[in-house]
Design brief:
A 6-stranded mixed beta sheet has the order 3-2-1-4-6-5, sandwiched between helices. By secondary structure, the chain is an alpha/beta fold. Helix content is about 50%, strand content about 15%. The protein has 13 helices and 11 strands. The termini are far apart. It is globular and about 70 Å long. Helix 2 runs parallel beside helix 3, helix 5 packs across helix 9 and helix 12 crosses helix 13. It folds into 2 domains: about 200 residues, Rossmann fold; about 90 residues, Uridine Diphospho-n-acetylenolpyruvylglucosamine Reductase, domain 3 (2-Layer Sandwich).
């Protein structure tokens, strides 16, 4: 079969991504043309498949690359049960993956808890938990995610709207660890039109999530009841393209790559400072609800860019949700302390300063006060 330019580019991107993870050619016999059977103990990669065009295009490409390299390739589908007939959507997508040749193919039904984080975040957390659990059970080496350049641009704009600092413009990482599993995004240099072309060339029927607003007229705005990401895709990005007179998806995605280099450097510096300036509480402090101890004097000597990232990292590692305002209040305990109370967090945690030490505490026990 003669492959399109989109397919050739997708194959190259995935092969490069896998080679970077040590998942390249398994044996020279797979370098020759023809249909190959991977070894039973060959490394397993899994595609996280929703049934949409992006993930089904990735499933198709992943199976092709696995055949070229001697890897095993399967698919994981998560049924959130949040829409009518979601089980049928998952079933059809699973059937397509099996037809493409992926094995194993698993559907997992999850219950999405309702929290203050919002329905999208709740569904995402449940999805990743299920994906990691299934992938670890299958002893997979990596899970492939089908996010494209369009998704990256949308993520950057969401971050800017929500004022998330440098993290806003870095977008999604190309590889990340979550729940003990390695996740890879090989399609961040592809556009949605590329995945559409791949599916059409391969005769793959996909499902369009109705909340995406893809079937809505382009000359009208989406209702605010639809997710922010959908409204950015349908309303904001086309307006930016018209305003700038250029492809803002490509520009935003390129900017994310450049910003990610800066973020990676800062994170490396922060990791070193974390080891030096953050300590575990002793047994007496633990009994009083103390979760972490921070060296206020050492923190004060740090550049603000490193200090605030370190404070945010401490809260993240402790599982404490926070806002930029609360990080600033915590930073004030370091550099502008005159006896004031520290910030209180939504999760019943607080921060206080005692001399040259800042304590992050579980507010359920006030014995430390």
């Amino acid at each position: 079969m003669v492959y399109s330019a989109a397919m050739k580019k997708a194959v190259g991107l995935l092969r490069s991504t896998l080679e970077g993870e040590g998942l390249g050619l398994q044996d020279q016999r797979f370098a020759h043309h023809g249909v190959h059977q991977p070894d039973q103990d060959a490394p397993l990669i899994l595609v996280a498949c929703s049934g949409g065009r992006d993930s089904l295009a990735l499933a198709c490409v992943a199976h092709l690359v696995a055949d070229m390299t001697g890897l095993r390739c399967g698919a994981l589908l998560i049924d959130h049960g949040l829409m009518p007939e979601s089980n049928k959507v998952a079933g059809r997508a699973a059937g397509t993956c099996r037809k493409l040749g992926l094995d194993p193919v698993r559907i997992t039904r999850v219950n999405v808890p309702v929290t203050s984080a919002g329905p999208e975040a709740d569904a995402r957390a449940a999805r990743y938990q299920a994906l990691s659990g299934q992938a670890l059970e299958l002893r997979a080496k990596a899970v492939l995610l089908a996010h494209t350049r369009d998704d990256q641009a949308e993520t950057v704009l969401i971050g800017l709207i929500r004022s998330q600092g440098l993290d806003a413009i870095t977008g999604m990482a190309r590889h990340v660890e979550r729940g003990g599993m390695r996740y890879l995004r090989p399609f961040l240099d592809l556009d949605r039109k590329d995945t559409t072309a791949i599916c059409r060339q391969q005769g793959i029927d996909w499902w369009d999530d109705p909340t995406n607003g893809d079937n809505q007229p382009t000359d009208s705005r989406l209702p605010e009841t639809l997710p922010l990401r959908s409204r950015i895709r349908h309303d904001l990005l086309p307006a930016l393209n018209r305003f700038a007179g250029r492809d803002m998806v490509r520009r935003l995605a390129l900017g994310a790559d450049m910003a990610r280099l800066d973020q990676d450097y800062l994170d490396t510096q922060v990791d070193g400072l974390f080891q030096r300036l953050v300590s575990r509480p002793d047994s007496d402090q633990i009994a009083k609800g103390v979760l972490a101890c921070l060296d206020a004097h050492g923190l004060a000597d740090c550049h603000p860019a490193l200090r605030t990232r370190l404070l945010a990292q401490v809260l993240t590692k402790l599982g404490i949700r926070f806002t930029a305002v609360q990080v600033q209040a915590l930073d004030n305990l370091v550099c502008r302390w005159h006896g004031q109370q520290g910030p209180r967090f939504p999760s019943s945690h607080t921060a206080i300063r005692k001399g040259q030490v800042i304590l992050i505490c579980n507010d359920g026990d006030h014995a430390h006060r």
